[in-house]
Specification:
This protein folds into three domains: 72 residues, no CATH class; 89 residues, PDZ domain (Pdz3 Domain, Roll), CATH 2.30.42.10; 220 residues, 2-enoyl-CoA Hydratase, Chain A, domain 1, CATH 3.90.226. The strands form five sheets. Strands 3, 4, 5, 6, 7 and 8 form a six-stranded antiparallel β-sheet that branches. It is of the alpha+beta class. Helix 1 crosses helix 2. Helices cover 30% and strands 23% of the residues.
């Protein structure tokens, strides 16, 4: 039987929570305690009582209060949330680079789950999930009406088990259905390679606790492989959903020597932060091209914005996601946690990225659907030398017969922007496994060409 004193007891509990919260938030600014909306809280207790008495099934007090907290936070913005003990543990594990699931960063938008970006080398990416996809059904269960946490729980599961996602994608006539096999997601945040002699490539897929250290180790390895300092670097932040703020600061600081990297502003003293660069640039001023797209969010935008404002890099691609807010994780006494937006962050020149994003210096429109085909060598080409009566080159140098006949060796590790790369297989045979870079990754091809131009101008 429901107690007659339940409304007053619940009201007392709510007041206690709000008073505690009010003290922790407002004491730092030395403001008077906020006036509590007692009339509205009375309505809350009435609704609580009605649910306890009249709802078709019995619901525990703990569940109802959890639902109330979740609703209170989710109504603030898409990034504030109440993390249960299990969700909090998953978040902590995620920042270390290993967790279970599909490998996608998601938000809730208009009642549906929106993909911010798939994570590299994960089941979701291999199945064809793309940034901007809207998930409308999970295993035939409609997403509309679910909370983000509920949707995420449905997508998680035992490694090896299958899940069916129904996805709506822009420019597609009908929804797509993708079957994905769940797996343990092990995210390696840094990948690197030499594109061509002197030009390096670093991919940052997510900002984790060790990302800065791994980036600096990768740059050292690239210099060693190149047998000297790099002439330039492509920093790939495409489809990077963000991550740890300090990691973003460390990545930007790797290429800057002074000045602000990012600053934050919020209502409490702890939210007023400034991060400045230390006097060391690991590339020693060599040009950088940063690749971004609509899946580059949060920490990625901090890095791109800092390098753009300091004129340290050219930003290329499409406008970024536009998440310019900072979430603080506050552990609770019940092993759960409060994830709440506490500040906005700004680029060194004071630009807010919130709901606007980073606008690239060089825009590559629709590069995801661009199709580049290699021209046929069978086409009839005419040059000056083919014209009747052309003048001879009086300074021509005739190559030595053996030098002209001897082909230049190709490095098995260097991905050329113009030619396919010959690689050795396990049995020692060589196969032509890679298409020209212009076909496999047109944006990267353009970034490399720009990098070469910047290097040439810098040398002159």
């Amino acid at each position: 039987m429901l107690s007659r004193h339940l409304p007053s007891l619940v009201l007392g509990a709510v007041l206690g929570v709000l008073l505690a919260l009010g003290h922790s938030v407002f004491a730092e600014k030395e403001q008077p305690a906020p006036v509590l909306p007692l009339e509205d809280l009375h309505v809350f207790t009435e609704i609580f009582t009605r649910i306890k008495q009249d709802y078709v099934e019995e619901v525990s007090d703990k569940k109802l209060l959890e639902y109330a907290i979740e609703g209170m936070l989710s109504g603030l913005d898409p990034h504030s949330a109440y993390l249960t003990a299990d969700s909090y543990k998953e978040l902590q594990v995620g920042t270390t680079g290993e967790f279970g699931g599909l490998g996608i960063e998601v938000n809730m938008e208009d009642g549906f789950v929106k993909v911010v970006s798939p994570i590299d080398d994960t089941p979701a990416q291999r199945a064809g999930v793309k940034a901007g996809d809207t998930i409308v059904r999970i295993d035939n269960a409609p997403v509309k009406g679910m909370s983000l946490n509920d949707a995420v729980k449905l997508m998680r599961g035992k490694p090896g088990s299958e899940i069916l996602l129904t996805i709506v994608r822009e420019n597609q006539d009908k929804p797509l259905q993708l079957t994905i096999v769940r797996d343990i997601i092990q995210v390696k945040s840094i990948k690197s390679r030499i594109l061509e002699a002197g030009y390096g490539y670093v991919r940052v897929s997510q900002f984790q606790n060790r990302t800065t250290e791994d980036l600096q180790a990768a740059l050292t390895a690239l210099n060693t492989e190149n047998k000297g300092a790099l002439k330039g670097l492509v920093l790939d932040l495409r489809n990077n959903p963000g991550g740890v703020l300090n990691a973003a600061v460390g990545v930007a600081d790797t290429f800057l020597t002074n000045g602000l990297i990012v600053y934050t502003e919020g209502r409490v003293a702890d939210a007023q932060l400034k991060f400045k660069a230390k006097p060391k640039d690991m590339l020693e001023g060599a040009p950088i091209v940063v690749l971004v797209n609509s899946g580059s969010a949060s920490a990625s935008e901090i890095v791109a914005g800092a390098l753009q404002d300091h004129k340290r890099a050219v930003i290329m691609g499409s406008r970024t996601f536009g998440k310019g807010s900072v979430q603080t994780i506050q552990p609770m006494s019940n092993d759960a946690a409060l994830k709440m937006t506490t500040a906005r962050y700004y680029t060194p020149l004071g630009r807010s990225i919130q709901a606007d994003g980073i606008h690239p210096d060089i825009v590559l429109n629709k590069v995801e659907i661009a199709s580049v085909e290699e021209a046929s060598d069978d086409l009839l080409r005419i040059s000056e030398a083919d014209l009747r009566g052309h003048l001879d080159n009086d300074k021509a140098v005739t190559p030595k017969p053996d030098a002209a006949a001897k082909p230049k060796p190709k490095s098995p590790d260097a991905g050329s922007a113009d030619d396919a790369t010959a690689v050795k297989t396990g049995d020692g045979k060589t196969k032509e496994s890679e298409k020209p870079l212009a076909q496999t990754d047109y944006a990267l091809y353009e970034a490399l060409n720009l990098l070469k131009g910047l290097s040439i101008i810098g040398n002159r």
